[in-house]
Amino acid sequence: MLSALRWLEDRVVAVERFLGSTCMLGVVAICAMQVFARYVIGYPLPWSQELATYLFIWTTFFGAAIAVYSSDHLAIQYFQDLLPVAVARIVAIFCFLIAVVTCAIIGYISLQNSLNAMDRSASLGYSMSWFYGAIPAGCFLMTYHFTMRLIDMVAGEPPPGRGQILDGETP
């Protein structure tokens, strides 16, 4: 069962990496086009900054979800290292439960907000729901990965990343 869940999570992360990389490539390409248009052609593209900003927001949320998957978010290990391993594991499980609930709540509320968005982007003319959607998408992906890390911890499996939560050692 755990191997099937891990396989599914690996596929989800592959999609996240592809979409995040594609968005970042789009940001770089749009910024390069904007520089070329402004300084070589003499006509700035009115939509480029807005689209680059929204793509960067999507990139950020994909990256945050990938960081949860690989346990690469910032962590202060000092106090956890002072605790006995069994207590540190319980504290880590509790912290992951808080993270799951928090991301799920933020994801739900932001999904409601993005679905109810009636405004349009200034220069592109698209519904802002497409751009606000990065928040619930990222939060639900983080909820999924935090839940998987929680399952790993309860099962005693090391997470796909550094594994510092179970063994109490820093890499």
UniProtKB/TrEMBL annotation:
GO biological process: C4-dicarboxylate transport
Location of the protein in the cell: Cell inner membrane
UniProt topology in membrane: Multi-pass membrane protein
Record keyword Signal present: no
Protein family according to the UniProt entry: Belongs to the TRAP transporter small permease family.
Assembly notes: The complex comprises the extracytoplasmic solute receptor protein and the two transmembrane proteins.
Protein name: TRAP transporter small permease protein
